[in-house]
Amino acid sequence: MTDQPTPTSVTDDCDHSDGLAARMWCHHDLRTFVETDPARPRSHRALVAEGARVVIFAFDADQELREHSAAFPILLQALSGHLRVTADDQTIDLRPGGLVHMTTRLRHAVTALEPSTLMLTMLDPGAR
Q1: Is pTM, for the whole model, over 0.85?
Q2: 48: pLDDT strictly greater than 70
Q3: Distances from the Cα of 83 to the Cαs of 17, 24, 66, 108, 116, in angstroms?
Q4: Residue 69 in contact with residue 106, Cβ under 8 Å?
Q5: What letters, b where the CB count within 10 A reaches 16 and e where it falls short, cover 12-40?
Q6: Number of structural domains the chain divides into
Q7: What are phi and psi of 72, to 5 degrees?
Q8: Domain span at residue 100?
């Protein structure tokens, strides 16, 4: 059996003063990363790193992203609320804990059935 180092304490901060920022990134509550706007869905890029681009969307009830496509495969995850995702003649109710994968250029739309936060991960091999 190999001796594994054990942490002496567990912290809840993301201190990258040791130079790990280029290799590891964290944010403890992406649900609060973007505030809702009653006029339209809002988004903010959370991360661009090796192989991935992450964007957080905040929706008020009944707001939508009309049908569009992405240049890369994507993952959609509900962080809060209740979203309806429509693609390829299918409709999926997406709630926290759910995950949707879509292939490149698949046309899709997203509608918030209540105030919601969505995490979009674009699997972009050129992202750095």
Answers
A1: no
A2: yes
A3: 38, 29, 13, 13, 7
A4: yes
A5: eeeeeeeeeeeeeeeeeebbebbebeeee
A6: 1
A7: -135, 165
A8: 34-122
